[in-house]
Design a protein that fits this description.
Blueprint lengths: L18 H15 L6 H7 L4 H4 L6 H13 L13 H19 L3 H4 L8 H13 L7 H25 L5 H15 L5 H12 L6 H25 L1
Amino acid sequence: MLWGPPPKPTRGPKPALTLDRIAWAGIEIADAEGLGAVSMQRVAGLLDYTKMSLYRYLPGKAELVALMVEAAVGEPAGPGTPVEPSGWRGRLLDWSNRLTAAFAAHPWLLDATVGPRLMGPRELAWLERVVAALDGTGLTGPERMDAAVLLAGHVRSIAEQSRAAGPGGEPESELLAALGGLLQEHADRFPALAAATREAAVEGGRNEALEFGLERILDGLDALIARRSRHAGS
């Protein structure tokens, strides 16, 4: 279903639904209530069909969720797009920001994209973009794939914190509000944390963990690429 042409039901009347329409019905439920609310029954009801009728199109919920992920992640920007940044660093930063936006638009993707599973062509295109951006930098194939995992892991971590903070929440500001007074009261025991939170309060809480982490990851890749380049020229 992810990689081939849509299967054609072998029995019953002419199909009235499409896999894409079914997937987006599931996405509508998941966006509003979370992945746990998605079921074949709920999706069928939203489409004004019976649960059994959906089984003419896909075997069950696991396949439904896979189709939802493929539809929700969309196509990553890549070569040929009008706003494609130049240089590997700009492309990876853009990729990370786009992934952040995808998790913000569909927070249930955090739950649906864990563990070993078959990915669809759109989702794999996201991985392709990172590996391709680092092509020619001197990094090995495994290192380029590890870079993708590292970037995605950082984005996921911040996205999970943002989801826990709720709509419009700012995790760093909320943490500062929760701990700031306590740390100042016990500054003798936690002097470094107390000093850091005082500075953060002056700066308004920052809420820049995503950007800070991305820049440091990219700095590390830059240093590794430069080191490889020096060794290659020696």
